[in-house]
């Protein structure tokens, strides 16, 4: 239940009691920062504060991993599927109770079965077992278990994630999916590999890629139409999720054979080039997979090639996801983050966990800061799934180096989390203060792949541009010059909306 403003003010007054009257002369940001410091030792007040805080955008978000297991059970019931009582995998009917395959509907009423499925499709209650020893492997295995229903329910899934985002005061969401739902992979499978990228692209374009692109765009049309219907976005009482600006990244499965990866990349660049809803291409799947490691340099050369043909398509890459002991030391030293930026043209890096093991790590951090390469930090997921805690956690490393950072959820459904919880871990676990939280929220929109000029004078310099500099005190009535900027730029409009939200939030302290 959301607290009323009066309740909020009472909590603020109690925590601020005894503070000098001079706080009234401080800036709203300073007063809010002081309140957060006083709330650190009060779990109730801290969570209340973070729930209400504007959070900008979630830039690293996998649609299938963001949906909770309970929803996937409902989809399996709707689709009439069977669930294996031991493996928790889904299959088409007929079910066979003697073989342990029961109707998915049984998971609605059989409480032990329901808990087993939820635990299998997430990391909830994970306990190492001889055949399930590592939480990271358990995490990645979950995707294959609910995959039979995921691609058939995008509309419902999108409705779930944008509703949850809005509840947490997010205004922008980029989610990763495969618009063509595997058609490009199948097309790539029909080709023999050719080191001549131009020849490969030509063969794919003449061999059915146009249909792959058209089908991918239709899949997004259908998903958004259903999402809007579920949320009542065109009705008299639209759900709060309708207010979230939604964009897509075309994910590429990098652990597949190279000809299939190439075809997926081409499909992603073609779709993003044709459809403004698809704003970027990203490579996914665990980086320690054989092909993800073995073909890494090849994948970067592919991206370099496609970037030359489609220079306006953004690239965001998972990189640096390896940890000591997980792979040979040579893989940690292989400069995956640097190559992703310098060869793969990544504008944002997802995770970046092994930055300290890269060759010339100080130089790389300085380069990322100078080039404004944002890191999408999934701080809570890094702790639970990768064991990156204390000095090993990279959040303080990037912040200290001046690298722009935004907090992101990654796979909130599998991790059983939400963005507010990630903000809480940043505050409680790494002593992040309010000005830094606010900076990361602003960075999430500054580096969002939306069109138009920024509200800020320079990248990560959060000084308002001259046309709007005098209007921040009254964001509801911007001047003519500022209104013209906002009308011409979706990015500036999002940033303006967020600054207005910050103004209302900070006015309570």
Describe this structure in words.
The protein is of the alpha/beta class and 509 residues long. It folds into two domains: 5-53 and 452-506, no CATH class; 154-446, TIM Barrel. The protein is built from 24 helices and 13 strands. The chain has helices at 5-16, 28-39, 43-52, 63-66, 69-78, 106-109, 111-120, 135-150, 154-167, 183-189, 197-231, 258-274, 290-294, 296-309, 329-332, 336-342, 361-371, 379-386, 395-401, 412-415, 419-430, 434-446, 480-488, 490-506, and strands spanning 56-58, 82-84, 90-91, 101-103, 170-177, 245-253, 278-284, 314-319, 348-351, 374-377, 405-407, 456-458, 461-464. It has an eight-stranded parallel sheet. β9 (348-351), α17 (361-371) and β10 form a beta-alpha-beta unit. α23 (480-488) packs across α24 (490-506). The longest helix has 35 residues, at 197-231. The protein is globular, with a radius of gyration of 23 Å. The chain starts with a helix and ends with a helix.
């Amino acid at each position: 239940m959301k607290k009323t403003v009066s309740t909020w003010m009472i909590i603020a007054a109690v925590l601020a009691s005894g503070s000098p009257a001079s706080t009234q002369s401080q800036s709203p940001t300073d007063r809010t920062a002081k309140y957060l410091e006083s709330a650190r030792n009060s779990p109730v007040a801290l969570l209340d504060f973070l729930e209400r805080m504007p959070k900008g955008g979630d830039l690293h978000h996998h649609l299938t991993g963001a949906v909770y297991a309970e929803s996937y059970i409902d989809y399996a019931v709707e689709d009439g599927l069977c669930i294996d009582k031991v493996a928790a995998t889904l299959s088409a009917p007929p079910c066979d109770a003697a073989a342990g395959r029961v109707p998915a509907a049984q998971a609605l009423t059989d409480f032990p079965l329901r808990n087993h499925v939820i635990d299998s499709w997430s990391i909830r209650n994970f306990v190492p077992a001889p055949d399930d020893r590592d939480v990271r492997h358990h995490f990645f295995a979950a995707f294959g278990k609910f995959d039979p229903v995921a691609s058939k329910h995008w509309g419902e899934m999108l409705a779930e994630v944008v509703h949850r985002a809005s509840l947490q005061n997010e205004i922008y969401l980029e989610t990763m999916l495969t618009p063509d739902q595997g058609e490009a992979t199948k097309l790539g499978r029909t080709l023999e590999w050719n080191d001549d990228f131009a020849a490969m692209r030509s063969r794919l374009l003449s061999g059915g890629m146009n249909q792959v692109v058209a089908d991918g765009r239709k899949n997004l049309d259908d998903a958004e139409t259903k999402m809007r219907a579920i949320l009542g976005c065109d009705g008299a009482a639209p759900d709060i999720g309708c207010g979230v600006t939604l964009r897509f990244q075309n994910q590429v499965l990098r652990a597949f054979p190279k000809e299939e990866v190439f075809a997926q990349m081409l499909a992603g660049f073609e779709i993003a080039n044709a459809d403004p809803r698809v704003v970027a291409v990203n490579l996914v799947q665990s980086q320690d997979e054989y092909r993800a490691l073995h073909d890494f340099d090849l994948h970067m050369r592919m991206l370099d090639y496609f970037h030359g043909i489609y220079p306006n398509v953004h690239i965001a890459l998972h990189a640096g996801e390896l940890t000591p002991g997980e792979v040979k030391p040579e893989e940690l030293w292989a400069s995956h983050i640097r190559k992703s930026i310098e060869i793969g043209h990544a504008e944002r890096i997802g995770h970046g966990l092994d930055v300290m093991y890269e060759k010339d790590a100080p130089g790389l951090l300085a380069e990322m800061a100078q080039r404004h390469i944002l890191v999408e930090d999934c701080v809570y997921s890094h702790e639970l799934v990768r064991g990156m805690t204390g000095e090993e956690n990279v959040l303080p490393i990037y912040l200290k180096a001046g690298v722009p950072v935004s907090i992101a959820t990654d796979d909130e459904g599998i991790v059983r989390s939400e963005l507010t919880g990630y903000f809480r871990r940043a505050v409680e676990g790494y002593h992040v203060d309010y000005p830094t939280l606010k900076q990361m929220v602003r960075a999430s929109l500054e580096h969002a792949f939306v069109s138009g000029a920024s509200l800020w004078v320079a990248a990560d310099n959060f000084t308002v541009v001259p046309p709007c500099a005098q209007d921040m005190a009254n964001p509801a009535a911007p001047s003519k010059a500022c209104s013209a900027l906002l009308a011409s730029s979706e990015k500036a409009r999002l940033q303006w909306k967020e600054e207005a939200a910050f103004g209302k939030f900070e006015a309570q302290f």
